Prior knowledge:
- By secondary structure, the chain is of the alpha/beta class.
- The chain folds into two domains: 3-117 and 361-367, Enolase-like, N-terminal domain (Enolase-like, domain 1, 2-Layer Sandwich); 122-348, Alpha-Beta Barrel (TIM Barrel), CATH 3.20.20.120.
- Helix content is 39%, strand content 19%.
- Helix 1 (54-69) packs across helix 3.
- The protein starts with a strand and ends with a helix.
Amino acid sequence: MKISGIESILLSYLPKNPPRDGLSGIPTRDVYLVKITTDEGITGIGEGFALGSLKSTAIIVEEILKPLLIGEDPTQIEGLWQKMYRTTFRVGRRGIVLAAMSAIDIALWDILGKKAGLPVCKLLGGVKDSLVAYASAGYYQEGKGLDGLAREMEGYRSQGFRAAKMKVGGESLAVDVERVRVAREALGPEVKLAVDANNAWDYSTALRFARAIEKYDILFFEEPLSSDDVQGSIKLARDCDIPIAGYETEYTRFGLRDLIVQDAVDIVQTDVIWSGGISEARKIGILASTFGKECIPHFSAGAVSLAANLHFGVSLANINLFELTVDDNPLRSELSLGSIEVRDGMIYVPDRPGLGIELNEQLVDRFRVEI
Length: 371
C-alpha cells in the first residue's frame, strides 16, 4: 500500500460568545484536518492543532511534509514520523510544524486501523474502553459573572461529571480566588475541581494563588507558568500542596523529559494534535509512567482530535482521567456522524476500525475555509 494523496481541510467556527482563558481570547474554534488517500482506497483522517494558524499549517503540510510522504508505505508510521522530524529540524520543534506532523501521524494510524479492521486503541494494546471524563470549561465570557459560573458548574454536576476544570489567570488574584470559591460550592463536595492558568503567571504569583485556594480541595493546578520556566515549575511543585499538571505546550517528549525527570510536574499532560501525533503522545505517556506519574490527555479541539486522544488515552495504564472541553463548538459535537458516548461521568472510545470517525460532509462544507 502506498500514499497517493494528502488533502488539507480547513474549518473554522465563530462562537456567539467567544471564551477567554488566562492567556488570551479564543475568537474562533479552528480545526485543521488532513485526509490521506492510498492506492488501495483506504483513507485516513487526522487533525493538528491550528488555533489562528489554519492556512499556515496547511502550507507546512503542502510545502514540506507532503513531498516526503507521497509514494511511501503508510503503515510504516514510526519511520515516517522520524523522516518528518529529521527533515524539519531547522524549521521548528514546537508549534505549527509539530501540529502538521500530528495531523499526518493520526491519519496514518487511522489508515492502519482500517487496514487491520481494528480500532487504533487495539493496535496500541489498549487496557480499557473508557476513561473518567472531566468537564473542561469555566472560561471567562462577557456577561457570565459569578452567578453564571455557578450555574455552569451546577450543570456539570447534574450531568453526572465527577470532576470539572475552570480557567484562572485572566483576572486579579482576588477575583480568581473568589471564582474558585463559587465554583467549589456549586460543584459540592463529591465533584472534584481543577484549575488551569494557561501559562499566565510567574512563580511567586502562582504560589500565592495556590496557597489561597488549597482549602478548596483542588484536584490539580494546570500550566501555572510558562513551559519555558522549568526552574520555576520545579520550585512551585515543591512549594505548594496542589499537584502541578502540565505542560502540553512543551509538545514533544524531548521537552517534557526535563519537566518529568526534575519533578517540575506531578501530572503529565499531552495532546496528540500538539505533540506530533499518537506516536509521540504515547511515548510521553510511557515516559511519565517510568517516573510513576499519571498522564492526562489534553483536549480542546475537534471531533477527530477527541477520538485520537481517546484511543491514545485508553492504551496506557497510567491514564485514567480525560479532559472533555464542553464549550459551544459544533466542530467537536457534530463533525463526526458517529457520536462519542459520554455516560455517568465516563467517556467511551469508539470501537469501529481506525479512529472510528466518519466526517459529516455537510458540516465540513458549512464551516470550510479556503486557502
